[in-house]
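Cross-posted from the bioinformatics board.
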Amino acid sequence: MTAAAPRVAEAWRVLRQVPDPEVPALSVCDLGIVREVSEAGDGALDVVLTPTYSGCPATEVIERSVLDAIDAAGLGPARATLRRAPAWTTDWISDDGRRKLRDYGIAPPGPVDAAATGAPLRLVRGAAHPAPIACPRCGSADTERLSAFGSTACKSLYRCRACREPFEHFKPI
Amino acid sequence: MTTSIELRADPAVQYLLRLGDACLILGQRLGEWCGHAPIVEEDIALANIALDLIGQARAVLTRAGQLEGRGHDEDQLAFLRDERDYLNPTLVELPRGDFAFTTLRNAMVATWLKLLWQRLQASGDAELAAIAGKAVKEARYHQQHAADWLVRLGDGTAESKRRCEAALAALWHYGAELFDDDAVDDAAAAAGLGPRSSELRDEWQAEMGEILGAAGLAMPAPVPFRSEGRRGRHSEHMGYILAELQHLQRAYPGGVW
């Protein structure tokens, strides 16, 4: 960050307070959705966002809330552009974001390597998930997956056998 | 009635429509399961997969409109074409059938799309490559999910196995169309846009063979039959799904949320 861009620094500070509409415990910055903020030649702020899932219905809401927050802080005018490449990955969720997810009751995603490109299909009935998911409430690794899909595209549903609580898991992609 | 749009016959646009329309029409079909799946987890799963597919369709149709260069956007392309201008494979437009039918079709399509998106990450069209980089992760998850279920059903009860075998008999021969080349493929390969359809055949056969093998199901022998949805010649089911898909935009032209 250069001293010449206090407006950009201030914009980042504002954006760190903008909650994700689906997981309001996290900001859009914690999730790694805001990629860049810069001042354009015409005096507008350029905010580069990246979509999480192709079909995520929150993408447009996020764009609007980012622009509204910048306007409300008197930092406008601003423009948002969507950039798909490189594709968003859960590896971009900050450490702070992972802690907030766990506190909110959602098991954070593990590193993406395990699910990386070219991983072979698992075709054994009842095969255990390659990496056990720890319960965000009691920390036990004695958990089971109930559903591959959850309340939003980015999550699956689990149950802890130790504390008996169901919980959501943020899928690593 | 809003007049249908007509498209320039450009092979690059047609290549993208074949892909985008496959995502769009299967997404529409899977949406029909919402509230009707056999268990709530699958209700959620099928709706989620549909949502991913619609998102992929939006991106690909938007790009197709840009390449066509006449200002057609994703909505015009999705809602205002006539039946013969949709270039999805016939496989995805067939009525949803029972859960075994839907599961088998999802496995066939997700395996194909995964292989195609993998290759499209290296497309000479930077926008298509970027769309593929995201979509390939989604397709992989869809394929794993469909494979999990196919193994569970094929290697399940006598009834679930019978239904899987019936689904194979009804669906398998519609897969052949996915791997037939024509002038659109030649142009796409020459322009560096993406692979020829036939380049994915062997890998698809191998992965489907693995899944069916684990499910205890026999892969049907090839037959001469060829569906031709990707050339705009559709089954009798296409008109009905388009009527439902297009109704709102035809009745209330330009309507938005």
